[in-house]
Amino acid sequence: MKGLFLNIPNAIKEIQTFDVTIGTESTISHIRIEDHEIVASNSSTDWPEGCIYQDSTQALTVVAAGWLFFRGKLGNLTELAAAIANTSTDGQIDSLLSEIDAGAFILFIARGTQYSIVTDPFGLHPHYCLDGSPLNGMAPSPMFLSSGLHSDPVQVSILAKMNYLFGNYTAYVRIKRLDPGSVNIGSHYRRYFDYTPQEVDEGEIITALRKSLLLFQERKRILPISGGLDSRLILACGEYDYGYTFGPKETGDRPIARRFASKFHDYTEFSLLGLQYDEKARAAGLKMFDGICENPFVELLVVYRSLFNRWGKDCLFFDGYIGDVFTRGSYLKYGGIRGSIEKLFPLVTQMRFDALRMLRK
Length: 361
Known about the structure:
Layout: E1 3-6, H1 11-22, E2 27-33, E3 36-42, E4 52-55, E5 60-70, E6 73-74, H2 77-85, H3 90-97, E7 100-111, E8 114-119, E9 128-130, E10 133-139, H4 153-162, E11 175-177, E12 182-185, E13 188-191, H5 202-214, E14 221-224, H6 229-236, E15 242-246, H7 254-257, E16 266-270, H8 279-288, H9 299-311, E17 316-317, H10 336-344, H11 346-351, H12 355-360
């Protein structure tokens, strides 16, 4: 499992066991700073300079997991860490972190005896901590922290009805997700990313997508394509090496998606029923989402392994199934006829909105 593990007993063994079970590969890096054990599990191609930076003259150590672009370079940890060393105030470091071009990442920064954890702006590489502080234990899944803990009956109720939880909540009383776009020091955090809404012209979305593709020119690109507009929008913004679609052969996404097969160097489509599922891999997938999602789509682990075997491990995966990004209020819904009506007429929800009541439906 990819991620950053802080003060997790037997972390390396747990990562290796998980990787063997689901058929993935990780490059594991390990460092100890005073009483704190830090383990990073990554894809080595995402950190060409390594994922650990140390400068004894500055008393600075930075450990990274996930991936990021800084000043146009993938895994540019050396330049990022050197820039961090030149900051002296919270405002300066917040401004610097906002300069990261793109990424799904988490950073551990030790400056002397002060330790901080930095999360990516949109929670794309979520991590969870125990008792409000990463130093008490931090990992990319609650399963590494939940042994012997009691569950929260309110969150368990919401989880059972909605299938997944919202924001920083988990099903466990003492485990929370770290806030996206934040710098965490002990049990306190501050946000470095500005989430103030801005008016954006639709054409700027296309420009931004095309600009982001320029960052990944040296990697083979994979795009899952459905019958919807979102993945076709991403396809229209650049060139991709490989594409795929899954589902029933002549229904749903596949008949529409295969019309675009010629846009890829290699395209494949398949039914999920045609794949081989290992029960141990399924159990590992369920465990990975324990306390976050009741019924995760763990079959995707088999899908990804199949694509890994077909196209290699160093490809870049563009998630074309972004769907609800372009649908306002998509998470503020529930099942049944009433829920369907309120989804069609969102003003009804806005007029009498009660988050807890809605989650319990």
